[in-house]
Amino acid sequence: LKGFISKSDDEWRKGNWTSGCVRRTKLSCQANSSMTTQGKDTDVFYRMTNAKTPDLHQVASFLSAKQCYEGCLGNCSCTAFAYISGIGCLVWNGRLVDTVQFMSNGETLSIRLASSELASGSSRTKIIVGITASLSILAILVSAAVMFLRYRAKHIEPTPTVIDTLQDAWKNDFQPQDISGVNFFDMHTLRTATNNFSASNKLGQGGFGPVYKGKLLDGKEIAVKRLASSSDQGTMEFLNEITLISKLQHRNLVRLLGYCIEGEEKLLIYEFMVNKSLDIFLFDSTLKFELDWPKRFDIIQGIARGLLYLHRDS
Question: Which stretches are transmembrane (predicted)?
């Protein structure tokens, strides 16, 4: 997001975004230690189009977009505003939680930034254009190479000896750290954690295999999904799927902690959810009374946000 940087570069490199972002440049009104803007270096607003507006907004009584802008600019605690036809002026004070930019069909969100963030951007723009052009050419070359290799794979059938040699080479060359940000678990660790996949630790049965509760040596609880051996998914397809899943980071989605490949075994390790599956509460004659309508409404909203993230941003 323009004007913001990661709060912890180390966490972001590991795929952990929970700490969020901080401003790159302090706001002018904050530097003046006043609730209203002062002096020549007033703050400016960056217009972010096609945005999913942040949570926890307030409705202001301003009757036009100009009044909405002036009201937010004059209040140092106002970090962003949006004037939406039919709704009015929405303002945000403090952190901008769960802000997302879609490809289309979003709102225009004006985010408060220091004036220096939008000044003298021509040189930066030239650099960005140059980098973008270079990456575009590289992407075209890589795509052409992939298409060529796929064509060769379809039209040149390898002999069984070649296949065995390739599989042996893959096993020798494979390194657990080949997938960035995802932990590799060995089968011995998972057997110990789940008591050798004991039936007493079984949490449920899905379409792709059973799920077991496990406990690592450091005391951390995990959920282990043991994929059915009848699956015809290849090893490389499985690794590609792990790479895609590991990039999904949302507070309403269960986080992938790692994976395991040993022989024909393929397993996924997720964070353990203490309350188990939602259907246990919905259909249990006793537990269902713990879900009053406010809780159910929050659950519905969380599911909707997770689905929206998967369909639009993943």
Answer: 127-149
